[in-house]
Specification:
Mean pLDDT of chain A: 97
Number of domains of chain B: 1
Number of domains of chain A: 2
Strand content of chain B: 5-15%
Radius of gyration of chain B: 20 Å
Low-confidence stretches of chain A: none
CATH architecture of the largest domain in chain A: 3-Layer(aba) Sandwich
Helix content of chain B: 40-55%
CATH class of chain B: Alpha Beta
Number of strands of chain B: 7
Strand content of chain A: 15-25%
Oligomer: heterodimer
């Protein structure tokens, strides 16, 4: 048996619905249609009245989730694309993220964001929003890179008493497969060492973990041992694991699919520079998408975001410095 | 109504004396409408008031102490100095605290109502209060439409007080009356003269009963005039004398008093006595709150998450 990243998300939601009567799913086309990506396939049949089609009203969708959470429910909101969450941005960052701090009433909602680029999707169906949400206090931001994490982290997201922004990568939906669903997982807030090495730490998350792993494999043929750190969640960000990795390798390359100004890679570099400067044998580097909207054409798209090729080039340069 | 007015006036006095940090926002002129909403809700209902709803908040069950503590920044208040003035509530009691983004709380009320329905709690209603300015927001449209689709027992109360801060209603919408929007959403519309207590009580009772009995969302437009500035920092010089001299400019408290006297419910001595009683109640509460501790930044946990173990710590230099 094999299960994809997308199926793992579907299975996690099925299990959350089965295990907890407080869970319901609300989003556009999630009901009988099973979602734009089929992440809720058959769930409306299996859990009648708990998988609810929403109008095209992202603001009201999140507002609805907050109100339901106040009443003790644990809603999962599917944004059809991460990009559309900007329409619900106000309710996420001002309503959901502040509720517990203001009132001591927790706001256990999960906002699923189908994130990141796939070729041909263009400027409005390709965005990675994790840095934007990580900037705001009161939110947990998850960026699973594996089938196992997609499953276990989504279940943990439902269990957490705070709003969780769950960035699931669309490119991984079908490409990534595992033999079975996991029975145990690292806790939220712990990064994973996806591959061990001693010459360079590539710190990545979500789909970029796989690009980094491909680079590690390629550079192993050149005699380099690359360590790949999978952050798993970008908020909280596991500084300890990153720092321990840099202590082993002396070199840092942070890779993210979102834009270069600020963001997760800048945060990683800033933390290592300020807290682990003496661990570094070379200036810490980072690689992000280009500072333009995300292009539609595959020729442009493959160059816009970091790929194994551009990461390998940056890694070689850093290894020689 | 009287308590709301007296408490508001007290806050204004304290503001002018420099005893309140931040803004003060009064409900002067809107107490009849506000109280008609708050007093006709029941335990188990949901209430999302806005900035001019002191009277309705008290009628819904808020204590004078909760209001005073929030305005005066007492650490013992429901918001503990983390938020102030009209930004207060007790969500678990169905009293939704407002955020400043207008229209945003309507969908929150929808969510509470949907959850109650999913939990099998029927016969409840949720009232969300906005001004005419908020009807221009996308949040208003999305949430009223959402309530209609889900046939939720929402009562959306629009206080059309003619000005959103300084912007006149003519720059806010172009339809003849806001209530005309209701059929476009497939919801029932009601209009009421907002400074007439008897009318407000009757119309709101009708709307609340209809929502409670399965009639779906109810839209209430109350026409009135704000008899104060947007906040106490604002002299409202943009409100014309013509507006003030119009029937809408009549003080709802005065009208209510006349209605009580005419109906023989109370005489003027009784009304005066009510006022004296609430003045004492308010003075006692303020005196108590003034002796209470302010929030201590060194005792504050600076944690935004309920899951404390997931809160990040920064700046080791501060430790």
């Amino acid at each position: 048996m094999s299960i994809t990243y997308l199926e793992a998300i579907r299975e996690a939601q099925a299990r959350a619905l089965a295990d907890d009567p407080r869970v319901f799913i609300y989003g556009q086309d999630v009901g009988a249609f099973g979602g734009a990506f089929k992440a809720t396939k058959n769930l409306a049949n299996e859990y009648p009245g708990r998988v609810i089609d929403a109008p095209i009203s992202e603001d009201a969708m999140i507002g609805m989730a907050v109100g339901a959470a106040v009443e003790g429910m644990r809603p999962i909101i599917e944004m059809q694309f991460a990009d559309f969450s900007t329409v619900g941005f106000n309710q996420i960052v001002n309503q959901a993220a502040t509720l517990h701090w203001r009132t001591r009433v927790s706001c256990p909602i999960v906002v699923r964001l189908p994130s990141g680029g796939t070729s041909g999707s263009g400027p409005f169906h390709s965005q990675s929003m994790e840095a934007l949400y990580a900037q705001y206090p009161g939110l947990v931001v998850m960026t699973p890179a594996t089938v196992e994490d997609a499953y276990s982290m989504l279940l943990e997201a439902v269990a957490i008493d705070d709003p969780v922004i769950f960035c699931e990568h669309k490119y991984l939906y079908y490409h990534l497969k595992a033999d079975r669903l996991p029975t145990e997982a690292l806790p939220t807030g712990k990064a994973a060492i996806a591959r061990t090495g001693r010459d360079l730490s590539i710190v990545a998350y979500s789909a970029m973990v796989h690009e980094a792993l491909a680079v590690a494999e390629e550079l192993s043929g050149e005699g380099w041992e690359i360590e790949v750190v999978d952050l798993r969640s970008v908020k909280p960000l596991d500084t300890d694991t990153v720092m321990a990795s840099v202590a082993r390798t002396g070199r840092l390359l942070a890779v993210g699919e979102s834009w270069p100004w600020g963001g997760v890679t800048a945060e990683v570099v800033a933390r290592v520079a300020s807290e682990g400067f003496n661990l570094l044998d070379a200036p810490p580097q980072r690689l992000n998408a280009k500072d333009t909207p995300i292009p539609y054409h595959p020729n442009l798209w493959t160059v816009h975001r970091p790929t194994a090729r551009s990461i390998a080039a940056a890694a070689r340069q850093l290894l020689r410095s | 109504m009287v308590l709301g007015r007296v408490l508001d006036e007290k806050f204004a006095t304290l503001y002018r004396a420099g005893k309140i940090h931040g803004g003060v926002f009064l409900g002067r002129g809107q107490e009849a409408l506000s109280v008609a909403v708050g007093m006709q809700l029941q335990p188990g209902d949901v209430y999302a008031p806005l900035i001019r709803d002191q009277a309705g908040r008290l009628a819904f069950g808020e204590t004078v102490l909760d209001a005073a503590r929030t305005y005066m920044g007492s650490a013992l208040g429901p918001m503990r100095g983390r938020d102030g003035n009209v930004h207060r509530g007790r969500p678990k009691a169905g009293y939704i605290p407002m955020i400043s983004h207008l229209g945003s709380n309507i969908a929150v009320v929808n969510g509470a109502l949907l959850a109650k329905r999913m939990k099998g709690q029927n016969g409840v209603v949720g009232a969300a209060c906005i001004g005419e300015g908020a009807t221009s927001t996308g949040a208003f449209h999305e949430s009223l439409n959402q309530a209609a689709i889900e046939c939720l027992p929402l009562v959306l109360v629009v206080a059309n007080n003619q000005f959103a801060y300084s912007t006149p209603a003519s720059r806010q919408f172009a339809c003849e009356a806001l209530v005309d929007k209701a059929p476009g959403y497939g919801v029932t519309g009601h209009s009421v003269v907002g400074n007439d207590l008897v009318q407000c009580l009757a119309v709101l009772r009708g709307a609340i009963d209809a929502a409670r009995n399965g009639g779906g969302p109810q839209f209430v437009e109350a026409t009135l005039l704000r008899l104060c500035g947007h906040g106490e920092h604002d002299d409202a010089g943009y409100i014309s004398q013509e507006h003030k001299d119009s029937p809408l400019g009549r003080d709802c408290l005065k009208i209510a008093e006349e209605q009580l006297l005419k109906a023989g419910v109370a005489d003027s001595d009784t009304v005066r006595q009510w006022r004296n009683e609430v003045v004492l109640e308010v003075d006692d509460a303020i005196a108590k709150v003034q002796r209470e501790p302010a929030p201590d930044p060194y005792q504050e946990d600076w944690c935004a998450l309920a899951s404390r173990h997931l809160q990040e710590t920064h700046s080791h230099l501060e430790d």
